[in-house]
Specification:
By secondary structure, the chain is α+β, with helices and mostly antiparallel strands. It has a domain of 104 residues: YaeB-like fold. The chain is 20% helix and 28% strand. The chain contains 4 helices and 11 strands; from the N terminus they run ββαβββββββαβααβ. The strands form 4 sheets. A 5-stranded mixed β-sheet has the order 1-10-9-4-3. It is globular and about 45 Å long.
């Protein structure tokens, strides 16, 4: 099985406000995902054709976690953004201050070719493509998908991948993202 790099994940670089690798290339991260998949180090994603590959602890320190825990001293900033020109804009909120949390785990999100083809979002012809790299703060087992992404998926909006979520999944997402925020990049 080959996991290729989807263009969407290439936005995850330093000063993007997203998880990024200090030194690993996207190709080496995709190769690591292949190795982990072959070892069975993955779990099911939110729908058939989506897998969460668990990165080996030997590479965790290479990834920067972009999140801070929100407290009464956290200054937040919101702005209207869009991920790409053809998608609807949304309100993004980030923390202006605070120290990024230590990375405890890293999940590599991969999508199967047929799932990507549904919305013409494949950028290679590989069976699987690396879509996202998610650093999980130390002490947490996982982080829920953001409510904006869930909305885009469930309503099958441009840039979303059709899915249906349980009430508990929505509540857990909103609750989590009331306590954590990505830190505003220093650009």
């Amino acid at each position: 099985m080959i996991i290729a790099v989807n263009d969407f994940v290439k936005r995850q670089v330093k000063d993007s406000g997203k998880t990024y690798a200090r030194s690993m290339s996207f190709d080496s991260i995709a190769k690591h995902a292949e190795d982990q998949m072959s070892k069975g180090c993955f779990s099911k994603g939110y729908r058939d054709g989506v897998k969460i590959v668990h990165a080996d602890y030997s590479i965790i320190d290479d990834f920067v976690c972009p999140y801070v825990k929100i407290d009464e001293n956290t200054q937040l900033v919101s702005r209207i953004v869009r991920r790409s020109p053809h998608e609807e804009s949304y309100i993004q909120t980030r923390a202006k201050n605070g120290e990024p949390l230590e990375t405890g785990k890293v999940d590599l999100i991969i999508y199967r070719h047929d799932v990507l083809i549904e919305n013409n979002e494949n950028t290679t012809n590989a069976e699987w493509e690396l879509i996202s790299i998610n650093a999980i703060p130390k002490g947490l087992d996982s982080i829920p998908m953001g409510p904006i992404t869930m909305m885009r998926n469930q309503l099958n909006l441009e840039g979303g991948t059709k899915a249906l979520y349980r009430t508990e999944e929505w509540a857990e997402s909103v609750q989590f993202w009331q306590k954590y925020a990505a830190i505003e990049p220093n650009i």
